[in-house]
């Protein structure tokens, strides 16, 4: 190879760090990727939960989370004793998401139930714009982005043996995994979880069993809202708050959900972690002269397209069989 | 036990039932015969609350149920085995059966009924951990019936249990339905295309044509009826 392009490529490749040169850096990127991956997994789970039970892709998922996080920020600023504690805010964020999800299902989605899918998807896009505008109207005053508190520290690192990881990223990972475990327990070991899975699979049969299908759908949206709320409060101290701060998270979470298989719950988790780690590795080890960290998102999405070419249903998704 | 009085029902502009009246006595097997689209399934859907009638009355044990939601009707003791079985195909056999008992709170009774279902359908006990979708057609029908029995109903609505099954399997399933009716006195309303089998276990039958009851009589008389023989029995 000759010419300016090859020179640039060589320089770029040459300038990029090599994973084996600095094992600690490599370890850090993996763990940081797992932490942000946990957030992507939570949002991907929120998307998959709704998609599995209703075939709807909720584009407003990110803005619901953003709205809740801003509400938590207001509580934090208000300095109300107990509630403005960052730990309490994390719990409140989940509860706020629970309520918001339920309200959205009852007020926004229920009236268009049974309408063509495209209609409903456009409604979720409308909700996206509505929440985004209202949040901008209420909160986007003064300096942006706003900082959001962490119960631990975003800056102070903990040595976990092979890497130095900020306390807050360990918290993200821990809370994220704990939330997923709780969700798994709910779905697999409770009667309510069984009823929700049954409703997602066959609403008609679920009604014949005496399951109140409407309540199950509301509960599904409420759980999705909870996942969104928690992920917003977890990632906000890292990304800082502004009305579009959850948008990139939503894109990665979509990528994670599609990668894992849109109808697969374990797939969303696996996809989230893969996307999180891939994002960090690509950002660190691609030649900066050509690609650089700002190419992280397109690179992750290109990876996604490549995988989908080989496995159209995602890694763990099941092919939908429909009799016509 | 169950009485329909001049029930008219429609899907949008398409009228499915026109003034259908029928009666099911406690402890009996009653069958609804008729061609495709005659209104058999719609009748069951009205009873289980999935289709709301435009006019007419549905009475169950002296109580009007035509304005109740499906879950209320299940609570009253009416369980339906729907057409095409409608299993939760990705859930296990065991989970499908547990869902049949969704509205019940008596753990001991549920465990008892699980044994009872496994008694009638021993193959289901062997396949407990398997996904319902992986069962054969006959096993799936058994599971659908077992799932309905888990609600401990007093009235069982059966929609086309023979659909898509081999003759031997169909006969086995009818034998078991008959046994359940005889041993437990469970009342059965049976919708069936296979008129011969249905009339064998039923006491009484109704013949539906384009949403109307055109004939009703004891099963023995229907079997001898010239019209029924030509149209539904084929001899």
Share of residues in strands of chain A: under 5%
Q: Which structural category do the helix and sheet elements of chain B fall into?
A: alpha/beta
**Helix amount of chain B, in percent?**
25-40%
Rg estimate of chain A, integer Å: 21 Å
Strand order of the largest sheet of chain B: 6-7-8-3-9-10
Radius of gyration of chain B: 17 Å
Residue share in helix of chain A: over 70%
Brief overview:
The complex is a heterodimer of chains A (324) and B (235). With 324 residues, chain A is mainly α.
Task: Describe the overall structure.
The complex is a heterodimer of chains A (324) and B (235). Chain A is built from twelve helices and two strands. Chain A is an all-alpha fold and 324 residues long. Chain A has a domain of 201 residues. In chain A, α3 packs across α4, α3 crosses α9 and α6 packs antiparallel against α9. With 235 residues, chain B is of the alpha/beta class. Chain B is 40% helix and 26% strand. Chain B is built from ten helices and ten strands. A six-stranded mixed sheet of chain B has the order 6-7-8-3-9-10, with helices on both faces. In chain B, strands 2-1-4-5 form a four-stranded antiparallel sheet, covered by helices on one side. The mean pLDDT of chain B is 93. The interface between A and B is medium-sized, with 16 and 24 residues.
Please tag this protein with its features:
heterodimer, A: 324 residues, mainly alpha, two-stranded antiparallel ribbon, 2% strand, B: 235 residues, alpha/beta, 6-stranded mixed sheet, 26% strand
